[in-house]
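sorry for the late reply, my laptop died twice this morning and i had to redo everyting from scratch. anyway the thing you sent over, i finally got around to it. pasting the sequence first so we're on the same page, its 289 residues, then the predicted structure underneath. double check i copied it right bc i was rushing
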Amino acid sequence: MISVGIAAYNEEKSIGRVLSLWQKEPVDEIVVVSDESTDRTDKIIEEISRKDKRVHLFRRSKRKGKPSAVNEILKKAKGNILIMADADVYPVEGLTKHLVKHFRDKKTGLVAGHPILTKPRGMVGYWSEISFDLIHEKRKKDIGWDVTGNLYALRAGIVKKIPEEVMLDDTHIALNVKRKNFDIVYEPEAMVLVKPPETIRDFIAQKSRTRAGWYQITKDEKTKAKRSVMHDLKLSLPLALKKLLTPKGIICLPSLYVFSLVVWINGWWQWKRRKKVLDVWKIAETTKH
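ok and here's the structure:
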């Protein structure tokens, strides 16, 4: 049995299309946890669930953040394979078969999907394009436990609950999969479409919360980091040198390095202040479809 788990908060712009695309996939149930959405998200899901009994809505009366919603999905989902996906990314047809095939190997605990950017615009879009290209190349060589919360599939029972104040639920789950001696696989053909931030403010907000999460994972859990300022710099140099040969690269790359440093510093500060998940996880509005 294959379950899909989606944590949603005020996703009225995308949730209808997201669910319609998942309905075309060979899955047995779609569990959506709405974290006290205040827009039309719940109504849209309810309308769809009346027509498709595979779709189940669990509404929360108090907003607690994504990690808590993930815990509810882990509890409610009945499948032996659970596909976790964001509520604002569009699944590309056929991704389910690409994810599920890896679980024939009993040692496979998690399969990470491949996020693809949709229409990156301007300088900030170019920054995101470079970032996604770099992470894609890294994951092809060595996925480690650096998975994306946009899309991954998990063997049921390996992780039953995560701390509700963890900032990177996906990385925490991947880390625990590794600790239990299961393998993590990267599947480039399992794709979802992701809208990148369009403003510097949203870029900083989105990247800073990720960096804060890395500090939390590596410092609080005493785990050797696979992400750092120097790591990102070394990883990006070969691609950066190629991009510098283009007019856009000459203009945009220096500023990318400056703002990358800014987000690492901001992420460190957020972690150091022990800010709550809901304080760190601000919505980047321009990433919504």
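Strands lie at 2-8, 29-34, 55-59, 81-86, 90-91, 108-117, 151-155, 183-194.
thats about all i looked at so far, will dig more tmrw
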